[in-house]
Structures are given as C-alpha cells and as structure tokens.
Amino acid sequence: MNNIEHAESQALHRDDVRSRMGMWLFLFSELLLFGGLFLMYSVYRFIHQKDFSIASKEMNTFLGTLNTIILLTSSLTMALSITAIKRGMKRLSISLQLITILFGLAFLVNKFVEWSAEFHKGNFPDSSVMLSKPPGQILYFGLYYSMVGLHGLHVIAGMSIICFMIYFTIKGHINENNYVKLEAAGLYWHLVDIIWIFLFPLFYLIT
After folding, report:
1. For residue 178, what are the β-bridge partners?
2. How distant is the alpha carbon of residue 73 from its chain centre?
3. What single-letter DSSP state applies at residue 178?
4. Which residues fall within 8 angstroms of residue 168, CB to CB, at 6 or more apart?
5. 62: helix, coil or strand?
6. Model confidence at 15, in pLDDT bands (50, 70, 90)?
7. Mean pLDDT of 29-39
8. Do 94 and 68 meet the contact criterion of CB atoms below 8 Å apart?
9. For residues 132 and 111, what is the distance between their CA atoms, to the nearest angstrom?
C-alpha cells in the first residue's frame, strides 16, 4: 500500500466528516447557551436603558478594546497554525499554537486587572456599594460578571484544548494527513472570539 492509499485509509477509518459534524453540533449548543443569555440581557436592557447606560460608564473601555484586539489576533494565529500543519510545517504550527495560548493568557491577565479595579471600587455582588445602586445597575453588573465570567471559563477551556493539540502535534498524531482535531480546536477558539465580539459592545459601548 503506497502512502496516498494509506492516508486515505486512515481518513476513512477516522471518519473526519462525522467528527466535524459533531463539533459543529457542539458549537451550536454553545451558541444556544449564550444566545439565551444575550436574549435575557436584551430584555433587561430594554427595561432599564438609563441604568445600563450609567453603569457601563464605569467599565474600562481601553482594556475591553485591548482584549478585543488580543482575541482577534489569537484567532489569526490559530488559523495560521492549521494552515501550517496542512503544509507539513510542524514547528511553525506548534509555535503558532503556543502564541495563541499566550494571547489567551494575556486576555485573562487583562480581565484580572479589570475585575480587580471593579472590586476595589466595590462593584461586586452583594457589596454595600452595589446594594446602594438602583436595581437596573445591579442587574447590569450581575449580567456582566455572569456572562463575561462564563466567557472567561471558555477561554481557559480553549487554552487547555490547544495545549493538548500541541502535545498531539509534537507526537505526530496531528500532521498534514490528520489535522481534524486541530481544526476542531480552532473552531472552538473562533467561537470564543466571536462571543467576545458580541459581549464587548453590549457591556462597554452602551450609549
């Protein structure tokens, strides 16, 4: 059996089409989760438009913008890592995956700095400062911590998945003939980035 026939036999055995379909179904379930949260946000914002606008002024727009740039760039490096492995450029793919993880870490560090500042101001659940605010502003911060916090957990999950992808790439389990796992990890990471694209204007750019 020549190399081409062997690669085709492996691809058939792996059933890459079903693997991709399974990943898309999983991503759809994630969209349903955040879609429900976005719907809830829309209802509360419609009811408390003024309070949401006032509360959003306390957000650090600079850090929010910086995190947006970081995640968008990380999506690029993740996509390039997949392109690299397709072309047999193993070391480059591994390097780009590592860079993607570093971008994710930078995002989390910025978020930690931002949340630390909010906690220092007393803008956290059940604090005396928070309880003194109007109901609409309390709802805003409750949604902010819930939705942005959930997204942060997805960032951590994405970084963990990419760590496994690096291991598989080093061991040769991911290569130019078998990269569906890396594609799936990339799709998950892109979803995390897309969710942030919606979160950023909802919480930071309210007028």
Report:
1. 175
2. 12
3. B
4. 174, 181, 182
5. helix
6. low
7. 92
8. no
9. 25
pLDDT over threshold 50, residue 92: yes
Mean pLDDT of all residues in 147-175: 96
DSSP state of 57: T
pLDDT 10s digits, 62-81: 999 999 999 999 999 999 99
Whose CA is closest to 55, among 156, 165, 134, 108?
134
- DSSP-assigned letter for residue 185: H
Burial zone of 184 (CB within 10 Å; 0-12 exposed, 13-18 middle, 19+ buried): buried
Domains, the chain, ranges and CATH? 26-204 (1.20.120.80)
Output the six-digit token pair for 107: 């995002």
Gap between the Cα atoms of 21 and 42, Å rounded = 31
CA–CA separation, 196 and 78 (whole Å): 16
Please measure the distance between the N-terminal and C-terminal CA atoms of the chain and give it in whole angstroms. Answer: 65
Q: How many helices (H) and strands (E) does the chain have?
A: 8, 0
Q: Which residues pair with 175 in a beta bridge?
A: 178
* Burial class (CB within 10 angstroms; exposed 0-12, middle 13-18, buried 19+) of 24: exposed
Q: For residues 174 and 165, is the Cβ–Cβ distance under 8 A?
A: yes
The pTM (predicted TM-score) of the whole model is: 0.87
- Alpha carbons within 13 angstroms on the beta-carbon side of residue 183 total 16
Name the packing angle between helices 49-56 and 135-171 (round to 10°): 60
- Distance CA(143)–CA(33), nearest Å, equals 14
